[in-house]
Design a protein that fits this description.
Elements: E1 6-11, H1 18-30, E2 35-39, H2 45-56, H3 61-86, E3 89-93, H4 96-107, H5 111-122, E4 129-134, H6 137-151, H7 163-179, E5 184-188, H8 193-205
Parallel strand pairs: 1-3, 1-4, 2-3, 4-5
Helix pairs in contact: 2-3, 3-4, 3-5, 4-5, 4-7
The structure holds ligand Z5A.
């Protein structure tokens, strides 16, 4: 799909550190271009209402998959496409790779069904660049537990899932990255935040077509 903007997504299992790094990346890019920061599920008024349901209500796994894509369609129509048409840089905290990983892999809905919805809802729209924050699960779980203790916030439906669920989710993410190495850069998120920033700068520098210059 041709547009003047740039569509960047950040992904990873919960606690991998993507939100922390995304904040830094958005600040760096904002010095050069107009940045629209957004997230999934969510990003629109309707999408945020669906997010509440998705994160807290028990539901059939196919219902969950369909609602993810319903929220996504609204997000694409109301936020992503208009921003890309303006020439902005859209940075989304999660997008369809998350559905492949969490619903397709973690929940076991299967990649074929997710693919059908992806084609229907997105048409030709794909991220131009994706950062996949990867950590072994014991580290991710420890970070989530430490944060929950610090903030006193209850874990949501996904954060309460089993180790085995997250193992399948992480494996599906890594499989997606293996299939699209030009689009998806794997960031070793076990490292310090400074090192993570260096890895992000390098991954961007290796993709000259993005036309972004981020100081390490
Ligand atoms: N979901 C889905 O199932 N299907 C879909 O299609 C989509 C989503 C789109 C909400 O996502 C849920 O929706 C998500 C999957 C599902 N599951 N859950 N839960 P979310 O992105 O809003 O929620 P999240 O994954 O839980 O995000 P998060 O908790 O913010 O995790 P994070 O962004 O990866 O981590 P973080 O907040 O940046 O860092 C976690 C902690 O680690 C924090 O205390 C940091 O200070 C610390 N941290 C970060 N980086 C480091 C480094 N490098 N070293 C040491 N400590 C660090």
């Amino acid at each position: 799909m041709t547009h003047q903007g740039l569509f960047i997504t950040v992904e990873g299992v919960d606690g991998a550190g993507k939100s922390t790094a995304m904040e830094w990346l958005a600040e760096q890019i904002a010095a050069q271009r107009t940045v629209v920061r957004t997230r999934e599920p969510g990003g629109t008024a309707l999408g945020e209402r669906l997010r509440e349901l998705l994160l807290h209500e028990k539901m059939d796994l196919e219902t969950e998959t369909l609602l993810m894509f319903a929220a996504r369609r609204e997000h694409i129509a109301q936020v992503i496409l208009p921003a890309l048409a303006r020439g902005d840089v859209v940075i989304s905290d999660r997008f369809t790779d998350a559905t492949f990983a969490y619903q397709g892999g973690g929940r076991g809905v299967g990649f074929d069904k997710v693919l059908i919805l992806e084609n229907w809802v997105q048409g030709e729209l794909q991220p131009d660049f994706t950062l996949l924050f990867d950590v072994p699960l014991n580290i991710a779980r420890a970070r989530i537990a430490a944060r929950a203790k610090q903030t006193n916030e209850a874990l949501d439906k996904f954060e309460n899932e089993s180790f085995e669920f997250f193992r399948r989710t992480r494996e599906a993410y890594l499989k997606r990255a293996e299939a699209a190495p030009q689009r998806i850069a794997i960031i070793d998120s076990t490292q310090s935040l400074d090192d993570v920033k260096r890895q992000i700068s390098q991954a961007i520098a290796q993709r000259a077509h993005l036309n972004l210059h981020i100081a390490p």
